[in-house]
Amino acid sequence: MKGASEKQSDLIVLTQECDTIVPQLSPEGAANLRCQVMDLKSRVSQLSDAARHQINSVSDAIVQR
Predict the structure, then answer these.
(1) Strand spans (E) along the chain
(2) Which of 4, 8, 43, 63 is the most exposed place for a label (fewest CB within 10 A)?
């Protein structure tokens, strides 16, 4: 399973590919593709934030012992 940073790198490549493809799509298709890529970016960001929060919580619990 890939880590969050690897997923973010994949999304950067996907965004670049999206920018290459978009001019060849209809306006509706381009908007839909961009929306899907933005949704993926948002989901990866939320997962990264949740993981960071979990790590911080565990770290704080360890320090308190």
Answers:
(1) none
(2) 63
Cβ(37)–Cβ(10) below 8 Å: no
**The pTM of the whole model exceeds 0.85:** no
Kindly report the backbone phi and psi dihedral angles of residue 40, in degrees, each rounded to the nearest multiple of 5, phi listed first. Answer: -60, -45
Please count the residues of the chain: 65
Helix (H, G, I), strand (E, B) or coil at 2: coil
Widest distance between CA atoms in the chain: 59
What are residue 25's phi and psi, to 5 degrees? Answer: -100, 165
Q: Which residues contact 23 (CB under 8 A, 6 or more apart)?
A: 30
Q: What is the pLDDT of residues 53-63, one digit of tens each?
A: 998 999 998 99
